[in-house]
Design a protein that fits this description.
five-stranded mixed beta sheet; 5 strands; alpha+beta; Nonspecific Lipid-transfer Protein, Chain A
């Protein structure tokens, strides 16, 4: 499943929304997020990939493949997203090291640090295909 495709998001929603651990960590979370996966022409990724999703009471209720107003925007090079999904870098470390830039209240995002870590653990279980020269 290609990263960010409708098929990939359907699988992400199924996995995340059925995980009791994630639900307990995020049950009071009601936010929307935009991910900007920045182009890397040198690695075969010629355009930015924009995707987003909305969480209501700990459940993903919507996803999209365009730019919309959201509570948080998280942007970074494709390589960083790849490293996170392959388990080579943690998402919080990427944010605090500014490898991923966050627009929105960082303290509020860090409040749900454990939910974020669980969310990424779950995404890592998806058989993700990557764009460009990444596998």
């Amino acid at each position: 499943m290609l990263l960010g495709s409708n098929e990939w998001w359907a699988e992400a929603m199924k996995i995340v929304n059925s995980d009791e651990t994630y639900y307990q960590l995020a049950k009071n979370l009601n936010k929307s997020y935009t991910f900007k996966v920045l182009a890397e022409p040198e690695n075969g990724i010629s355009e930015n990939i924009i995707m987003g999703y909305k969480i209501e009471n700990g459940k993903i209720v919507d996803h999209w493949e365009d730019e919309r107003p959201t509570d948080f925007v998280i942007a970074g090079p494709y390589k960083v997203w790849y490293q996170i999904l392959k388990g080579k870098m943690g998402p919080v470390k990427a944010m605090t090291m500014r490898k991923l830039k966050v627009k929105g209240p960082l303290p509020e995002m860090l409040k749900y640090n454990k939910a974020t870590l669980r969310w990424v653990e779950l995404l890592r279980t998806i058989k993700t295909e990557f764009h460009g020269n990444y596998e």
